Structure formats: structure tokens, C-alpha cells
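Quick one: C-alpha cells for this chain, please?
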Amino acid sequence: MKKEPQVYLAQILHHIFKIEELTRDSKSEFLAQHVIHDAIINNFFDMGHISKQVPEEYRKQYDGISWGIMDEFADTWPVLQEVDCLNPDHVWSVIENFLPVVKSQIQSLFPDLEQWENE
């Protein structure tokens, strides 16, 4: 069964909210807790896979959303993590600089999106 594109966006937002919850403490707490670090990486990975499922025509229609960066979470990050090259400082930078942007991009286009998450 094919999902509505809004469902994918709601799922991406869900992962953003989870990352925000996991990082509500300090950067030093994030760096010290490998379990939290791994959970965050898994959420980014899931966001990337969800992003790649959004139909191309929809991606073109909403080209203000950073699809390419999210796609990289699925393509590049697992390889970097596997060879232990995923720098935690880089991950924190993405959390601070990218997540608020993509969250805002999605929420500004779809303010009532959370209703779609469980579709």
C-alpha cells in the first residue's frame, strides 16, 4: 500500500523529535553516552531511508526541503559508522545546524503534519 507523502514527512518529524529529546542535555553528555550517540545515529539513518521513499514528483514540488542531506544519512553515515569515522562533533553540528532547519522547512509547509504520523 502506497503511503501519502505527508506520512513520510510526519515520520521524519517523529525522528527529529526523538533526536531532540535525546540531545536535550549538553553536548558533553551526548559525547559521553555512547548509547545515546548510537540511538541518534539510528534515528538519522531512519530519516534517510524515509526520505528516499518520498516520491520524486513530491520532492520536486517541495524542493525547499533538504532531501539530499537526509538521503545522505542513509547512504553515507552507516559506512562511516562501520569504519568508526563518524565524528561525534560532526554529528553534534548536524543536530544543532541541520535539524532545526529541516524541522522548520517541514512544519512551515505542513503545520498539522503530526496527524499523519500513524496513517
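The CA atoms of residues 17 and 103 lie 9 Å apart.
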